[in-house]
Structures are given as structure tokens and as C-alpha cells.
Amino acid sequence: MRTGVLVMAYGTPTTPDDVETYYTRIRHGRVPTPEQLADLQRRYNAIGGTSPLAQRSDDQVTGIAAALERRAPGAFDVRFGSKYEPPLLETTAESFRAEGFDVVVGLVLAPHSSSMSTDQYMSRAKEALGERVTFIEIGAWWQFPGFLEIIADRVKDALATIPDSRRETTEVIFSAHSLPEKILATGDTYPEQLRESAERAAALAGVERWDVAWQSAGRTPDPWIGPDILQVLRDKRALGVSDVVSCPIGFVSDHLEVLFDIDIEAQGVARDVGLNLVRTASLNDDAHFTALLAEVVLDRVS
Q: What total of structural domains would you count in the chain?
């Protein structure tokens, strides 16, 4: 019997008509106000109407499956499940259970782990699989050998676009999705994971000037982890920074939080304050990256 691999990601509306249903789902059944819906649709429209996340996730799953097949022919069955958009992760988990799989590995397409993000994927998948199926959870994988080297190479590629004459006033800003501050009271290590991964990636890239920022905070009354990248950009310019390399290390593909929050919103702030901002290339379905995720799976089941 093959081992199941349930690859999970956040999900995104497939078409503009799906935005309201998707938004209601991520609000746990609460229908968004017309203003909230219009704001989200505005952001999707700014990047072409929909996010490429669904296709990017499919491509990554295909790459992981191909890499596992090369390393262990016939041993794995790789399927995708989303947190908020069909195919939902419960549906995919139930398909493994219905087909009699004894072991399923859970992998979230996010390098850092948190009680409010990746842990929720795992708990939902485990419940859907039931007690009969052995569920092997893969938590944070940013420390897996090779991942930060891939990030460092992208940082160096972005730095290479900046003239040598401005390198001394250039800084790299590593960012990840913010979460509500209340996770800090539980001892969640998500912020520490981001800073440590940024520190190691900067060292691998030979970067001395770097910092950490947070992005894409939810539109809720609760405070979210900061500082926000938009304010950080303003602060850096005031301190004499001329150029910034934005490295959204917490994300593994092009989607709304990268294409809008960085490429449009952050880029707009950078222009307003006279700061040159370049972004590292997203990982997407890079063959080295998907092969690394396959190795993460193999390492966990060995």
C-alpha cells in the first residue's frame, strides 16, 4: 500500500464570482459587508482578477509527486487539499481514508509553523482521516537542509540588480504573514522562527544589513504582530536606506500577499518615500524547491 501525502495550502477563489463565497468561508460563515467585499475584489482586480495561487499550488504538488516518484517509485500518492477553497483538505483526507490508506503524511506549503496557521491544517486533516489512519505531521520545515540556501540565492540575485555604488545603503527586509498578537501569550514560536530563518538566510547570502517585518495583517479589531512592512519602509528611508530587497520568506509562491501586498502596496509606499524596492523571485514550482519538499517527506517517513 502506498503512503498518502496530503499537501495543503490556504486556497484562493478560482474565479471573480467565487470571491464572496471564499471570503465568507475564511470569516467562518460570516458574510462580508459590501465594503469588505469590494476591497478584496479591488485587490484581486489589481493583480488580474484572481490570484495564481491555485495553479501555483497544483504545479508544486505535481513537482513534489514527480520528485517522490523518482526517489521512491510507486511508494507515494500525492494529493492536494485547501484550507478554504475546494478541494478542501477534509475532502482530500477523506478520499485517502475511503481508499484504505493506512498512512498519510501532512505537509503545509508554508515553511514556518504556528498554532493559528499550520497547526489548524493538521488538526482538521487528522480529524477527517479518523483514528484508523496513521497521520504523520510535518511541522515547520524552514530548517531542512537546502531551503535557506535557495532563499539566499534569490536574495543575491535581487541584490545583483542594485548598483554597487548603492550597496552600502541597501537593506534586505524578510517578511511573513502577520498573525494576531494573542498567539504570543501561548508561547507560539512563529516570530522566533521568522527571525532565525531570516538571520541564517542573510548570513548565507553574505548580507550584513537586514531586518524583519510583517505583512498582510487581517482587517480585524485585534492587534496583529508588527512592525508592518509599510511602516518599516518609511522608517528605513528616514534612516538613509536607498534600496530595499523585499524577501517574503514566509511565502512559497506568487499570490495576493506577494503580488498585491508587496508588488503594488509596498512598492507604492517605496515610491512615495523615494526608496528603490526590488523583490526576490518566488519559489513557485522551481524544481530544486519541489525536490527539497519531497526530501522533507522522505526524511519524515524514514
A: 2
